[in-house]
Design brief:
Blueprint lengths: L2 H22 L1 H22 L4 H30 L2 H6 L5 H28 L5 H26 L5 H17 L15 H4 L3 H12 L8 H21 L7
Helix pairs in contact: 1-2, 1-5, 2-3, 2-5, 3-5, 3-6, 3-7, 3-9, 5-6, 6-9, 6-10, 9-10
């Protein structure tokens, strides 16, 4: 397939997986929209306005992680229940195009919440640099978590496991790491573990863009986040179980 046909396939599949479903089941969009703002409300109510920058950055990253993790359940459902992936294997659609279609569909679900969170974060520091960082980090987190989610989905034995693993992935990437709270709160003997998840570096980059200093050189965080993204994309492209054995 040439590039134009590949892009057309990606957008058509993403439309089928997301927009058509949203039109028929608006409740799914409402849940994804309110989930990050519920966390924001709780943090604001418990700790006050001083945690708002951390809470907004955390909600932004959590929404992106949820979009990537949701692929595990949705792609497993398409593969195991609908047998849709088998049809794609027999079609000219490549594995990478199918992965990007699944990832784009999840991003469309999360787009309303992401846009509002982006605008709220920009209120702290409205600049081209902040906007670039918000978009670049979003792209890297979306691609990395989506690739990891798709890779996992191809090895899921049943749909119920898919939803359970997606919740666990969100927990390990968006709740436990210092995404919603300052990394300075992490005990020194656990700092090595706090720096392992890619979402930690995404949070550090976003906080720096709005004026909160990072304890780690930003170049390190960019390199680590890019390395995770390339690794997970390679994993999904070359190691995912695209065809049944």
């Amino acid at each position: 397939m040439n590039l134009l046909k590949t892009l057309r396939s990606i957008f058509i599949l993403a439309y089928m997986f997301s927009i058509l479903w949203i039109v028929r089941n608006l409740l799914s969009l409402i849940y994804l929209f309110f989930a990050p703002f519920t966390v924001l409300f709780l943090l604001y109510a418990l700790a006050g306005s001083e945690v708002l920058p951390y809470a907004l950055v955390g909600a932004y990253i959590m929404t992106l992680v949820q979009a990537g993790a949701a692929i595990i359940g949705d792609a497993a459902w398409h593969k195991l229940e609908l047998k849709f992936q088998d049809m794609m294997v027999a079609s000219p659609v490549s594995e990478t195009a199918y992965l990007l279609a699944e990832a784009l569909s999840e991003l469309l679900y999360s787009a309303p919440a992401l846009i509002i969170l982006l605008l709220l974060i920009l209120q702290f520091k409205l600049s081209v640099f902040t906007l670039f960082t918000l978009l670049a980090v979003a792209l890297l987190v979306w691609l990395s978590t989506s690739s990891l989610g798709f890779f996992i989905s191809t090895y899921i034995p049943n749909i119920r496991n898919g939803w359970q693993i997606s919740l666990l992935l969100g927990l390990f990437l968006a709740v436990l790491p210092p995404v919603f709270y300052p990394i300075e709160r992490v005990p020194e003997y656990l700092l090595w573990a706090a720096y392992l998840p890619p979402t930690t570096h995404a949070a550090l980059l976003l906080r720096d863009s709005i004026g909160l200093t990072s304890p780690l050189p930003l170049s390190y965080s960019w390199l680590i986040l890019i390395a995770y993204t390339l690794t997970f994309m390679a994993l999904a492209t070359y190691r995912a179980q695209w065809r049944e054995k």
